Amino acid sequence: MRIAGWRWGVAPVMVFALAALAAAADAAKQPSDPGMASRVLTFAQSLELMEVRNREVVSARRAVRAADADRLAANVRPNPNLAFTTAAIHPGGVGAGGQGRTVDAIVQLSQLVERGDKRALRDDTARLLAESAQLDVDAMRRAQTTLLAQVYYALVAAQSRVNVADDTATSWRRLSAAADLRLKAGDLAPADRSRLRVEAERVEADRRAAVAERDRARGDLAWVLGLDDAGETLVAVESPLPAGDAIERPADLAARIDARPDVRAAQRRVDAAMRALDLARSLRTRDVTVAVQYEHYAGQDQNNTIGLGASVPLFVSNTYDGEIRRAEVDVETALDAVARARAAATIDVRRARTDLDAARDRVTRFDGVVVDEARRAADAAELAYRNGASGIVELLDARRTLAAVRGDAATARAELARALVTWTAAVAGPEERPR
């Protein structure tokens, strides 16, 4: 009678423990660190921080300023030269004492006149390189957005796994406490209690591992956002997933690939290389240096003269073959870079689409079938164990499966959100941007 009475007394405790596990929400809760204020970020807020703090984006913007400075330097005329020369210096020196002690003075102003449209070609080359640098900023922003989605939703998944681990550990602690009472009452075999204790310790170890994984994910997100001092407090908010029919493949996919900033930047460099080749060929067009001079004869002001002059280079030793051949090779290299950029963009788009379709299918399976089935199986195993219809092994297996499935489902949802951002960034038009 004592044992039977105890069974009726422990039943509410067991039911409470089982209900706590079954009713745990799948949505990620916000973890907190004692004594440390959390910094909660949505993905949109993370994008805004990335714009101003991400090291790679900041460096790309600095390259734009450097390219603008190069254009300022390219779009200027050569400076004139002012020369002062003395002549007719007597070996006996200068000073008072006669005609032989005076010197003549010559002042000359010369200007290089560029021919062959060299200045315009320099300006076009620098302008195209500046445009490519600006497109590099857009390409870097796209790449860093993809990286941000990876680390952000890795943190979302890690937070969800911590929540699942917390729920599981709490449930096992309650079950262990109830098992201790049953063991004292003689209603539980010592071997089964040992198995429960081992499983509770394993669950606790899994929880600590999940916390460590979350902290690593926080550090990765802090690095991408340039928030090194706040890495231990970052909390990512899970975004609502889109409906299945909201993910469409653009009809103008080929045009979008050509419009991607990395492809356009490579094409601008081809145009710049072509202008640089024209500039190299224009070196064979002789520039002219014109000069005007005034010569003052000391003591003979009536004989002072003005002179004009011009000079051109003689292409005797250097006909600029090396510069032209180098420019031709640069054009070929730029064309290869365009082909590589377009091929890489095509592969990137295909991979992003494959990942998106796979992630969407995985979420559909988990949310629609797997999680519910795992929960029903766990409930059935717990009911059977409570009624003596099955052993502790079946209960352990069912709970392990449920915890694993819940963690995988959280990972699948985060992976779908990441894949959606990556897909949008891969095919976004110039005016579009992932959110």
Explain the overall architecture.
The chain folds into 2 domains: 2-77 and 114-284 and 319-427, Outer membrane efflux proteins (OEP), CATH 1.20.1600.10; 79-113 and 286-318, Outer membrane efflux proteins (OEP) (Single Sheet). Residues 1-35 have low confidence and may be disordered. It is built from 9 helices and 6 strands, in the order αβααββααβααββαα. The protein is an alpha+beta fold. 66% of the residues lie in helices and 9% in strands. The longest helix has 67 residues, at 118-184. It has helices at 2-22, 43-53, 55-74, 118-184, 190-225, 253-259, 261-282, 321-386, 392-427; strands at residues 39-41, 81-87, 104-113, 234-236, 288-296, 305-311. Helix 7 (261-282) packs antiparallel against helix 8. The strands form 2 sheets. Strands 2-3-5-6 form a 4-stranded antiparallel sheet, with no helix packed on it. Strands 1-4 form a two-stranded parallel sheet. The two termini are 65 Å apart. A hairpin with an 8-residue loop joins strand 5 (288-296) and strand 6.
Task: Give unreliable regions as ranges.
Answer: 1-35
Give the overall form: elongated
Strand content: 5-15%
Count of helices?
9
Going by CATH, the architecture of the largest domain would be Up-down Bundle
Round the Cα radius of gyration to an integer and report it.
39 Å
Percent of residues in helices:
55-70%
- Would you tell me which CATH topology of the largest domain applies? Outer membrane efflux proteins (OEP)
What's the total count of β strands? 6
Q: What is the makeup of the main sheet?
A: 4 strands, antiparallel
CATH class of the largest domain: Mainly Alpha
Overall structural domain count: 2
Order of helices and strands: HEHHEEHHEHHEEHH
Structural class comes to alpha+beta
Taking all residues together, what is the mean pLDDT?
81
CATH superfamily of the largest domain: Outer membrane efflux proteins (OEP)
C-alpha termini separation: 65 Å
